[in-house]
Amino acid sequence: MRIIQAAVFSGALFFGVFLCLWIGWRIGQARVRRDGEDSITGFGALEGAIYALMGLLIAFTFTGAAQRFDHRRELIVDEVNAIGTAWLRLDLLESNARGHVKELFKQYLDARIEAYAHIDDNSILAAAVNRSAELQRDIWDRLVAAIDLDPRPRTATVVLPPVNEMFDLANTRVLATQQHPPIAIYLMLGFLVLVSALLAGFGMAKAKRWSAIHVVGFAAIVSMAVYLILDLEFPRLGLLRVNDFDRAFLELRASMD
């Protein structure tokens, strides 16, 4: 749904830029016919400030989206490593408790894989996240009970910290998927793009005919840049994916059998 909204927003922006260029061009031509060509000059500083602000906002949103994209990929690697470390530490438990805890670990990893395989389906995602939370409680309760019966005093300090880190990273990843700029920033970006297109069209008023390659090229490049920003914000729903990193979860799960 979000990626459809991104495509609709970018498509609407393309036609909006095209329309604003035409409106600005028509207004400028009317001004030229009435007052001469000198009437549309002398606004370079004002136009430059607006263009610079548009470029700055595009750079700001793109940089932020790229950083969050990289951060989400890093969290995937961190969580896989944390689960793998916690899994290995389970071998330190007494044999009578180890088997059941390892089975819970397998179920937990299955739930984590299920959650991000269906991130575009809110109902399946919510069910998988809730299942993960339940398994976290079960794993922790089982571990605490097993460690209480373990005569070795250092078992708790070796086994529990990586499990706790594993749970923390799971929660961090959920929160990371919800971290996005306020919608007002995207609305402001769209507004600046349209105003810039209007001014660009006004500045082309000296030309008696449009240059289709310039008009379509400008509209396409700006709308594609905005779409790429939105795609980076929701990397699992559009053209940009993090599936290669998700394979690490599948490989880890296969190693547990």
Automatic annotation (TrEMBL):
As given in the record, the signal peptide range reads: none
Superkingdom classification of source: Bacteria
Cite the entry's keywords alphabetically: Membrane, Transmembrane, Transmembrane helix
Transmembrane parts of this sequence: 7-28, 48-66, 183-205, 211-230
Could you tell me what this protein is called? DUF4239 domain-containing protein
